[in-house]
From TrEMBL:
Gene Ontology terms: cellular component: cytoplasm
Domain of life: Bacteria
SUPFAM superfamilies: Prokaryotic type KH domain (KH-domain type II)
GO-annotated biological processes: cell wall organization; peptidoglycan biosynthetic process; regulation of cell shape
Similarity remark: Belongs to the KhpA RNA-binding protein family.
Function: A probable RNA chaperone. Forms a complex with KhpB which binds to cellular RNA and controls its expression. Plays a role in peptidoglycan (PG) homeostasis and cell length regulation.
PANTHER family in alphabetical order: RNA-BINDING PROTEIN KHPA, UPF0109 PROTEIN SCO5592
PROSITE patterns: KH_TYPE_1
KW Cell wall biogenesis/degradation (keyword) present: yes
A single MF term (Gene Ontology): RNA binding
Record key words, sorted: Cell shape, Cell wall biogenesis/degradation, Chaperone, Cytoplasm, RNA-binding
UniProt name for this protein: RNA-binding protein KhpA
């Protein structure tokens, strides 16, 4: 899941070398923290959060195969 988020984020931002993904895995859920440069934050979130919502939807669809709950947090 973390690699999927990292690949999507690197394609969106101007500074792909500053994209960091931290994956915290529990028994029933996974928390994925996405950290990007402050100037790229708007590109990852998108207008009215549409791109962030799309990223979360893709990750949740991939998580269904593993029967896990996934939370994607975008941090600065």
């Amino acid at each position: 899941m973390g690699e999927l988020v990292k690949t999507l984020a690197k394609a969106l931002v101007d500074n792909p070398d500053q994209v960091r993904v931290n994956e915290i895995e529990g028994t029933q859920s996974i928390i994925i923290e996405l950290k990007v440069a402050s100037e790229d934050m708007g590109k990852v979130i998108g207008k009215q959060g549409r791109i962030a919502k799309a990223i979360r939807t893709l990750v949740k669809a991939a998580a269904i195969k593993e029967n896990k709950r996934v939370v994607v947090e975008i941090i600065q």
